[in-house]
Each structure stands twice: as structure tokens, then as C-alpha cells.
Amino acid sequence: MGRIIVPEAEALLDQEIKVLDKGFVRLVDYLGGDDRIVQAARVSYGSGTKSYRQDRGLIHYLLRNEHTSPFEQVVLTFHTKMPIFVARQWVRHRTARLNEISGRYSIMRDEFYVPEPGQMRFQSTDNKQARSEEELDAELAQQMIAEMEADQKQLYAHYEGMIENGLAREIARGNLPLNLYTEWYWQIDLHNLFRFMHLRMDSHAQYEIRVYAEALAECAKAVAPIAYEAFEEHTLGGLKFSRAECEALNLMLAGQANPLEGRPLAIFEEKLKKLQAAKPAETPEEPAAPTS
After folding, report:
1. Is 122 in contact with 131 (CB distance < 8 Å)?
2. At a CB cut-off of 8 Å and minimum separation 6, what does 235 contact?
3. Taking the model in full, what pTM does it have?
4. Contact 163, 169 (CB under 8 A)
5. Distance separating alpha carbons of residues 201 and 214, to the nearest angstrom
6. How far apart are CA 194 and CA 204, in angstroms?
7. Of 19, 137, 168, 255, which is least packed with CB atoms within 10 Å of its CB?
8. How many helices (H) and strands (E) does the chain have?
9. Is 173 designated active site?
């Protein structure tokens, strides 16, 4: 069988999806799609004799039961542009291949991330690594944004001056701030992309990387729509309970008090809120097992 062509993905190729104020995600290439996942699971060739309904059921079966290797057969390549501090979170996902622009060879562009006023928020009191939902006073937020822009302008002017006076680029770049934009080509298989999106689309993820994960999700959905549907159903929309949480659920169902307290209780209550907010969805027919 030749290269799998997915019309929705073809339409998205090389189209910039704007992210933040100056960033983007661009799908450069892809290998495979839903058909490749099914082929890999059945170890067959050609289009096969299975129906769309059976293929859909199989993909849901695979993802629900964490049979991950067929999803690794689908590969997506992206060209992305993001602030350096976002890239440093992104690169923690090591199951990918990347090539980043180098400040040793290239003059870095005068492009910096400036938050929108609505993202200028207080530090969270119960999460040391996150902002709260409470926004700064509008006047104070604008003052801080103006300070950021002034600092960025001054630091880039110093950077240019260092370069003009002969300082090596690899040294001069060290004086540039973390909100400078960088670019890279990033290639990853669908299984690990789903893992990335599960973590970075979560409401607890930093906003600035969450919006990139949402743009990547748009591309994944175009390349493998059934697989993405299964990901939404069983991963994004699903819940996992710890042993202690299962014990608490059993006690609550029996009319007894919930023994959890402190941070474990807060996490458990968040899950219950998600459970209560869940909407009914069509459940695809599940085959007894992957067939060859």
C-alpha cells in the first residue's frame, strides 16, 4: 500500500496556526493516519475488509486498553515558534526529535512574548508553580507590561551592540531573556503526542504551553480523527482513581464518611466535579479483541 493520504491533514499542511502574540504551530508533514493504526494492529496490508464501524471500535479498544504501539506508527512533524520558557517546559517530553534555531549561528530576532492583560494574575496561594484566577488591577497590569516591553527593548539593543562590537554570538545571546521567541522542527509519534496533550491541555498546565497543546491537537485531529476521538473519550474525558480514592468512593456509596483530608481530599473533589460535569456520549461498539 502506498503512502496514506488524509484530506483533512493535506488541507492543514504548512498552514500557520497562530498561538500567543507572535508564535505559531505548523504541520509540516505526517506519516500514516487511522488506517495505519488499524493495519498495524491487524498486521495486514492494503485497505482490508473491515468496515469503518469495526475500525473505529478497534481504535477505541486499543486506546482504552493502552495497546500503544499501533499509535506509534503515526508520526507528525511540526514547525513551531514559542517563547524560550515554553520551549524549556516542552523539551521535558523527551520522546520526540527536534532541531532548534541556534543563537550561535544566527542573529536572534527582536521578538518577545508580551502577556495579555488578562494573563497578568497573582501568584496562587495553594500551587507554588502557578498563577491564580485573580487578575491584577488593570492599571498595575499595564504598568508591568510596559516595564516588560521596555526591558526587552533595552536588552535587545545591548545584544545588538555586543554583536556589532564583535562579541561572539554564543556569548551575546546569554543576555537575552526567557520570553524571547525561538523556533524548532519537532517530530513525534501519535502515542507520545497524546501523552504530551494529556498533560499540557490539562487545566493545571501553564496557559502559555496549554494553547500550543490545543493547536497541536487540531493537527492530530486532522491526521487521525478516529484516534483523536478515542483520545478525547478515554483520556481527556476519562478519570483515574487511586486505591485510596476507590476506598473513599466505596465508603461514600455505603453512606459512610469520606476519610480523605488535606491535599488528597482536594484532588479527589476535583475529580468528582469532573465526574458530575460529564455529558452523555455515544459509546462505540467494542470488538472482543484485535483481529488479524
Report:
1. yes
2. 63, 194, 198
3. 0.89
4. yes
5. 7
6. 17
7. 255
8. 11, 7
9. no
